[in-house]
Specification:
Elements (H helix, E strand, L loop, with lengths): L1 H65 L4 E7 L4 H18 L3 E7 L4 H13 L4 E5 L1 H10 L5 E6 L2 H5 L12 E5 L4 H11 L5 E7 L3 H16 L3 E7 L5 H11 L2 E4 L3 H4 L2 H8 L6 E3 L2 H7 L2 E4 L2 H16 L11 E2 L4 E4 L1 H7 L8 E2 L3
Helix pairs in contact: 2-12, 3-4, 6-7, 8-10, 10-11
C-alpha cells in the first residue's frame, strides 16, 4: 500500500508539473500576441500622429503665410478648353497650397464672349476682390479696362505688349498688371514644320482675326517660314461661325496648315479635324490641346505648370512679399516636341525619335 501510495503521489506530482508547464507556455504565447498587438497599435498611433503633425504643420504654414487674413480671388476664364482649364487648375492648386482656407475663389467662365469678360470683371470690381486672374488675352484686356487698382495677373496670354497696346514692351507691364506668357519659340515651331514637311510648298496660316495675339504669332511664323523657302498665306476667320468655310479653303489650297495658340480653334478642334484629316492636310499646332484635337505635332508647354507659376506670383502679391508693379512677365521653363500618334499614323507622317506622343 505504501509503494502504491508513493507511486500515486509521484504520478500526481508529475501531472501537476506538466499542467504548470502547459499553463506557463500558454501564458507566454498570449503575452507575445498581446505585445505584438500593442506594438502594432503603437505603430498605427505613431503613423496617425505623424500624419496629424504634417497636416498641422501645413495648416500652420498656410496660416503664417496668410498672417490671419482672408482673401477673395476672382478668376475670369475666356472659354472652356484643355489649355485654359489646366492653367486655372494649376493656379488654384498653387494658391491653395500656400494659403489654404484663407483664400476663396470666385471662378467664372465667359463662354468665349469678350463682352461677358467685361461683365465678369465689373462684378469682381464691385465685390472688391483682392486679386483677379485673367485667363486668356480678352479676359486680360477686360481686366485692364475694368480696374487700375486691383492686382491683375494674366495667364495663357502670348504677348503682353500686343495684348495691352504697349509699344516697345520691356517685359514688365507696371501698374497693377503682371502675369505669365504661354509663348513658345515661334521660330522653333516654324523649324518643326520644316523638319516634318521639308517638301511642302504652301503653308496656310489659320487664325481668328479677333484675337490680337493670334495675329502676332502668325506674323512671326510667316516671316520664319518664308525664310525657310515656303509660300505662306493668311486664312483669317472672325469667329467660330466662319471657321469651317475658311478652314475648307485653306485645306484646298495648302500642303500644310499652321494654327497658333488660338482660343477659338482650341474650342473647335473637331471642325478643323473633320476638314483637314479627310483632305490629308496636316496641321502644326501652337499648343498641345489643339494638337490633340486636330494636329500632327506641336512645340508646347505645360499649361498646368504655367498656372502654378501664376499662382505663386499671386501668393507673393497677396501676402505683400512682392509689388506687382515691379514683377516682370514670367515664361514657361521648358518646351516639348509632341505629336498626335493617331493622326500621324493615318496621314503617314514619320515622326523623329525626340518627339513625345500625346496621351490619348
Amino acid at each position: 500500500m505504501r509503494k502504491s501510495s508513493k507511486l500515486l503521489s509521484m504520478i500526481l506530482a508529475g501531472t501537476m508539473v506538466l499542467s504548470l508547464a502547459a499553463c506557463s507556455g500558454g501564458s507566454s504565447a498570449e503575452t507575445t500576441a498581446a505585445e505584438t498587438t500593442a506594438a502594432e497599435t503603437a505603430a498605427e498611433t505613431t503613423a496617425a500622429e505623424t500624419e496629424a503633425a504634417e497636416t498641422t504643420a501645413a495648416e500652420t504654414e498656410a496660416a503664417e503665410a496668410s498672417d490671419g487674413q482672408t482673401y477673395t480671388v476672382g478668376i475670369c476664364q475666356l472659354v472652356q478648353h484643355d489649355a485654359l482649364d489646366a492653367a486655372t487648375q494649376g493656379f488654384k492648386d498653387a494658391v491653395t497650397e500656400a494659403l489654404g482656407d484663407a483664400v476663396t475663389f470666385d471662378e467664372q467662365n465667359a463662354q468665349g464672349d469678350s463682352n461677358t469678360c467685361s461683365t465678369i470683371i465689373n462684378s469682381f470690381v464691385s465685390n472688391n476682390v483682392d486679386l483677379i486672374l485673367a485667363n486668356a488675352t480678352p479676359a486680360l484686356q477686360a481686366a485692364q479696362a475694368g480696374t487700375n487698382e486691383i492686382p491683375i495677373l494674366g495667364t495663357s496670354v502670348t504677348e503682353y505688349g500686343v495684348a495691352l497696346g504697349i509699344e516697345d514692351f520691356s517685359g514688365t507691364v507696371g501698374g497693377n498688371i503682371s502675369g505669365t506668357s504661354d509663348l513658345a519659340p515661334l521660330d522653333e515651331q516654324a523649324a518643326m514644320l520644316h523638319e516634318l514637311f521639308p517638301d511642302a510648298k504652301k503653308v496656310g496660316l489659320l487664325y481668328c482675326s479677333a484675337e490680337a495675339n493670334s495675329q502676332y504669332q502668325v506674323d512671326v511664323v510667316k516671316e520664319a517660314l518664308e525664310g525657310l523657302g515656303y509660300e505662306c498665306e493668311f486664312y483669317a476667320f472672325s469667329d467660330s461661325n466662319d471657321l469651317s468655310t475658311i478652314a475648307t479653303n485653306a485645306a484646298a489650297d495648302c500642303d500644310v496648315i499652321y494654327v497658333p495658340t488660338d482660343n477659338t480653334v482650341a474650342s473647335n478642334t473637331e471642325i478643323l479635324d473633320n476638314i483637314c484629316r479627310p483632305a490629308k492636310v496636316p496641321v502644326i499646332a501652337g499648343e498641345e490641346g489643339i494638337c490633340a484635337g486636330c494636329g500632327v505635332a506641336t512645340l508646347s508647354i505645360s499649361y498646368y505648370d504655367l498656372g502654378v507659376g501664376t499662382g505663386n506670383m499671386a501668393v507673393k502679391i497677396l501676402t505683400g512679399e512682392a509689388d506687382i508693379a515691379e514683377m516682370p512677365i514670367e515664361y514657361a521653363p521648358q518646351f516639348t516636341k509632341k505629336y498626335n500618334k493617331t493622326i500621324c499614323d493615318e496621314l503617314g507622317v514619320t515622326i523623329p525619335d525626340d518627339y513625345v506622343a500625346i496621351e490619348e
